[in-house]
Amino acid sequence: QDLLIPMKKYDKIVRDKIPAIIRAHGSSCKTRTAKPEEIMNYYRKKIDEELDELFEDPSAEEMADVMEVVDALREKLGLDINEVISAKSAKREDRGGFRNATILIHVEE
Question: CA-CA distances (angstroms) from residue 84 to 26, 56, 75, 79?
Answer without folding.
Answer: 41, 28, 11, 7
